[in-house]
Amino acid sequence: MKRRKFIKKTAGATVAFSIVPSYVLGKNHVPPSDTLYVASIGVGGRGAGIVKGLSSNKNVKFVALCDVDDKLAEGSYKMHPKTKKYKDFRKLYDNHINEIDAFTVGTPDHTHAVIALPFMRAKKHAYVEKPLTHNIHEARLMANIAKETGIVTQMGNQGSSSDGIREAQEWIDSGVIGTIEKVDCWTNRPVWPQGLRNINEGEPVPSHLDWDLWLGPAQNRPYHSAYLPFKWRGWWDFGTGGLGDMGCHIMETPFRTLGLGYPNEAEASCTTVWAGDFVEANYNKACPPSSIVRLKFDTEKHGQVNLNWYDGGIMPDLPDELKDGEFIGNWSGGSVFYGTKGMLVTDCYSGNPRLLPSSTMNYFKKPEPTLPRIKNGLNGHIDNWVEACLSGIKTSSPFEYAGPLTESVLMGNLAIKAFQYKVLKDGKKPTDWAPFDYPGRRKLLWDGEAMKVTNYEKANEWVTRDYRKGWEVK
């Protein structure tokens, strides 16, 4: 459905409404046929940014807002005081599914798929924050349902709409740095506590929060302030760590420009956390404080590409071609492409592409633009989706693309979880010296089409998750 239908059938008659062009009614009037009726789920935190972006688009009308946390949602609710408000997205669905054209999801990672899929199956256009899903199985399912229904979709990786990623692709396609052999990607995340002890105790649930709905598909446990409002990103049951948070922004640069698909190998190394003097911790519920991930891709144009990921304060090697005082990327991170003829650097969100050594830029003649630009670039990402819903243009990050990108990011997390996995040795206590075996510390071989690790069966448990009863994703 590209536009809202305004020919409605009643039991007694069929009434047709003529839509008057906006220029007849005045330039500030938006006719119903040019209006996108939207429900937004998760409207605090990052979700508030989605609501703010949509609110500035005159073609959007909110039908309902939903959030499990009244305090976090307060700003969005004040912005739209007359809009219907819910805590449970299922009630919003029951009451308004026939009144909306589209929906947005700005909730924690672990609830993206369970919320989005019912609306998608009802053929409502979808805008879902990054990463698209919490696990690989969900990402594949979301991409497949989007294809089956033909809805307009967009993942919230704003760099997809930037001029920078298009410019970087045009430069690479021109052959200026030759065949790409390696890409280093890095981020300053996590910027929240991570690598913490497992939490077994609880605290009183704040009155403004529905904890059961917040948990969603995660197994039941007591509320604790160590999870909220933003620290959930560092817990595997809810978030996807620094890689999941920023990979869809930073790894996207090589993923798109080099035409990467599913990786075929993944391995990781992570910070060891110590619970006491000479006592190694086994905090398996928390993402590690820092990690390095190495992914290998086979590509048609560049052959094998090695993609390395660094987070938690760990940085890639600084190229010799950097001048004193020059940096790779920006504060949030970036990418370095190593080609047979030279190097290309980009910031986070694919911004500010430049060649190394920087003196090359003095005589480099940029190729003529060949890829269409998005109006307002990175800041036009949400408007790009709205326009696509109303007119049928292609979005920057449809799920057919965003799904495989998310899968590649989450494949890195499989390697991190495998590295973290510890088995207590026979006859050892956790407080003994060297008490653990580490069966997952290996290269994971990945069959992307089959969605299966072929050389370590334990890792296949993490391709999906153990869903709480009543919250299964199918």
In summary, what is this structure?
The protein is of the alpha/beta class and 474 residues long.
Give a written overview of the molecule.
The protein has 474 residues and is of the alpha/beta class. The protein folds into 2 domains: 152 residues, 3-Layer(aba) Sandwich (Rossmann fold), CATH 3.40.50.720; 249 residues, Dihydrodipicolinate Reductase, domain 2, CATH 3.30.360. It contains 12 helices and 21 strands. Strands 17-16-15-9-14-13-10-20-21 form a 9-stranded mixed sheet. Strands 5-4-3-6-7-8 form a 6-stranded parallel sheet, with helices on both faces. Strands 1-2 form a two-stranded antiparallel ribbon. Strand 4, helix 3 and strand 5 form a beta-alpha-beta unit. The chain is globular. The protein starts with 6 loop residues before the first strand and ends in a 21-residue tail after the last strand. The N terminus is likely disordered.
